[in-house]
Design goal:
Helix content: 40-55%
Largest sheet: 5 strands, antiparallel
Structural class: alpha+beta
Strand content: 15-25%
Order of helices and strands: HEEEEEEEEEEHHHHHHHH
Number of strands: 10
Number of helices: 9
């Protein structure tokens, strides 16, 4: 075989392999990245490939850890213009609040490997609801008790005995249990402490970058929820942005920095972007500065006493 013919064959093989790879599309996504433990998340995997290729979505069910699979389905494949469309989905529910990692999906065909990125989802505790009023319906009216004069002495003794018991409990509580009074830690001190814990997380992988972004976003959201006394942890960045301007106890610059931090962390959490450690340090410094500049100021009179 002469060299030009051999070279042409290699070119044809390369082109056919490239076309083959371009014809395969593997994707995974969720219908929502954050919800409560009362709700469910739908995890979907899609695979598009040419009709002349035999390839299927792998079973990733056993790789989903920490979550309950309440439903799952392999949809019937569809063919559109010589392309086969396949879909598999799982309905997931969590018993315990927290951040969970959904597995990446990987397939190999014709010595080409296709792989999706892992997905992080968050389950939060549901808001407390009022107790059922049905218990109140079980309370029945009690008729007044009428005592005969012969029982008055016993009633008096019982009352004195109860007063002594209550008095002893009151004295014991306020003289021997002072150490049991809970100490409230200011929100900014909690935020500084939590930020220090996540500072050691590196940005070597997408998983580490997503974990850091989830953590730092959660810390700042909880801090601003305590600072502004509003619901921030359960709202999207867009919802917070629309209402934040009405709060005058933080200035415009800090409001813009808060929104910028949420938008930057959302970009890392919900895309395949892999920032470097320089960008990580910028996020960390932005969060630390936000807490430092918005924390409650100590009156000068108290500073002198300290």
């Amino acid at each position: 075989m002469n060299k030009p013919a051999f070279f042409n064959i290699l070119v044809l093989l390369f082109i056919s392999k490239a076309l083959f790879a371009e014809g395969i599309k593997l994707n995974s996504f969720v219908d929502k990245a954050s919800t409560t433990t009362d709700d469910e998340i739908k995890f979907t995997i899609t695979l598009n490939h040419p009709q002349n290729i035999d390839i299927n979505i792998p079973d990733v069910g056993p790789l989903i850890s920490g979550l309950n699979i309440t439903q799952f389905q392999d949809e019937k494949p569809e063919t559109v213009k010589d392309t086969v469309l396949k879909e598999k989905w799982f309905i997931l529910k969590a018993n315990i609040s927290g951040t969970y990692q959904l597995p990446s999906v990987e397939i190999t065909s014709n010595n080409e490997t296709f792989k999706t990125s892992p997905i992080f989802v968050e389950f939060k505790e549901p808001n407390s609801t009022s107790k059922n009023d049905s218990t109140q319906n079980d309370i029945r009216d009690i008729k007044d008790i009428y005592l005969s004069p012969s029982n008055n002495l016993w009633v008096a003794l019982i009352i004195v005995f109860l007063v002594l018991i209550l008095g002893s409990l009151y004295y014991y509580k306020f003289n021997f249990k002072k150490s049991s009074i809970p100490i409230t830690i200011p929100a900014h001190e909690t935020a500084f402490s939590e930020l220090l814990k996540i500072k050691k997380i590196e940005f070597n992988t997408r998983e580490e970058a997503k974990l850091f972004s989830f953590k730092i976003s959660e810390i700042i959201r909880i801090y601003f929820e305590a600072l502004l006394n509003i619901n921030v942890t359960d709202k999207t960045t867009g919802e917070i942005k629309r209402t934040l301007h009405s709060y005058t106890n933080i200035n415009d610059q800090n409001q813009k920095s808060f929104i910028k931090l949420l938008e930057d962390t959302d970009l890392i959490k919900f895309t395949d972007i892999l920032p470097d450690n320089h960008q990580k340090n910028e996020l960390y410094n932005l969060a630390y500065t936000l807490v430092e500049e918005t924390k409650p100021k100590v009156p000068e009179s108290q500073e002198e006493l300290v």
